[in-house]
Amino acid sequence: MKKLNREDVQLFRNSVGKVKPVLHNRVMPVKPAISPRPVFREMDEAEVLQDLLSEHFDPAEMESGEELVFVRAGLQQRTMKKLRRGMFVVGAELDLHGMTVPIARQAVAGFLLECRRRRIQCGRIIHGKGRGSRHRSPVLKQKIAGWLQQRDEVLAYCSARGCDGGTGAVYVLLKRK
Description:
The protein is an alpha+beta fold. It has five helices and five strands; from the N terminus they run H-H-E-H-E-H-E-H-E-E. The longest helix is centred in the middle third of the chain and has 17 residues, at 101-117. The protein is elongated and about 110 Å long. 18% of the residues are buried.
């Protein structure tokens, strides 16, 4: 080890200046004082008030009575809102136009199995609005609602957005395998 010369030591002391010896090597953390105001609650209440006073509304959240909606217990409301807004990628589609009830039931069962096999999380089933049926009302619509509720792999379903078929189609959210 090389010994330092006097000039280097003096230069160092002049650069550093006067020093104070350390008495211990621990520093006690200072906790910041917590505000007694419920800031987040105030922000939430202000947001709710703003929403109530605004004229903005989401048509996906309005119910017309013709819509199909089913949510299995335990599914988050946020997930259902995303489904109703068509925010899930539709990985498969089934069109039931022109099918009889027994054939449509088999087609739906096969569609759900295929979605499960291909690990598709969201599919669309087009059941039609019934304008071409004998009674001018949807025959398959209520059948679909019952069939889907009976299937354990179906977490939720709802009528599609207008651009995807509206009340003539449903988005189906499936369990992940």
